[in-house]
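Board notes, transcribed. Complex of a protein with nicotinamide-adenine-dinucleotide.
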Amino acid sequence: MARRRLAVIGAGAIGRMHVERARLHPHAEVVAIADPSPAAQQFAHAEGLRWFADYAAMLDEVRPEGAIVATPNATHVDVGLACVARGVPALIEKPVADHVEDALRLDRAAREANVPLLVGHHRRHNPILRRAREIVRSGRLGKPVAANALATFYKPDAYFDMQWRREAGGGPVLINLIHDIDIMRFLLGEIVEVQAQTSNGVRGFAVEDTAAVLLRFASGALGTIVVSDTAAAPWNWDLAAGEAAHYPRQQENTHFLIGTDASLTLPQLDVWEYRSGKGWHEPLTVERSTPHAGDPYHEQLRHFAAVIAREEAPLCTADDGARTLAATLAVHRAAASRAPAVPADAMQR
Ligand SMILES: NC(=O)c1ccc[n+]([C@@H]2O[C@H](COP(=O)([O-])OP(=O)(O)OC[C@H]3O[C@@H](n4cnc5c(N)ncnc54)[C@H](O)[C@@H]3O)[C@@H](O)[C@H]2O)c1
């Protein structure tokens, strides 16, 4: 496959990481950066890339084969629409938008123009998650009855120097839990009802530091997730799955899928099942596959190149990203109202 000529719009923390990953990728080549900040201009210069302050001018002049949109959340839809208008497939960072209706507007525009959009829920490209999905889909677990996940970690105090991280929307529900909700949807299907409690009791900011969430899936299975950014604990995907070298890897499980015939842990991929008699007095057997190490951002780039070539359909469309966003925003609605929230209510087109 030829190297696709890509542009990165928004070269902050994650945008630069995409540039670095693309440098090593046989299917991708970043040729331009659009980001008005002086730091991004310097970065582009150091990388030997064309630099534009204005992304629309960049799209018109460079005409990239694909764009990676890594700007702040509130700008994703406008930037995405600009790409769609020019027929440029885009990899849009998560969350696809701030509001579900905006995500759906973007999805509609992309489908009408027949321009593929891929939302950057990168964990879906992790071989561990791919294997877990195969196991669930094979029926080996029987009927999934429950799922449980922990997203507990300690964000250093300096993280909160930025004002927006102390305000509504800047907390662990929309920044971190959204990934775990996406994992749950990817593995177990649609979430139809959400209950939640949130707390700011430790850090005392306007935004939550901890949340406990109860999920009901369309399949009838039930799930729970706890997220906290003020917890001295190893039980979170970033530490356990070894996706990025700046997180010290911990050999722990963080996600548990529990079925009538077998249960599965992630990221270790342990399968627990009865091999002789079935019942709580019988011995359980555990089979551990070696976790398949692989960089999901690298694989996401390969997939994006194949999406641009129209060889693969996006693994996470804007509609799919909107559904993950709707379930995540339902956590805030449920916590505020102390009543169940239905993600689909936000999906009315
Ligand atoms: N998938 C992941 O693992 C992951 C990780 C971190 C962040 N993200 C997502 O990536 C996005 C960016 O996050 P970040 O942490 O890199 O933020 P950041 O603040 O470090 O970078 C954002 C960049 O966008 C630039 N920008 C702002 N408005 C722009 C515009 N109109 N045109 C072009 N550039 C513009 C800023 O100058 C800045 O350099 C967010 O949506 C975030 O949720 C995803």
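DSSP finds ten helices and 14 strands in the chain. The mean pLDDT is 96.
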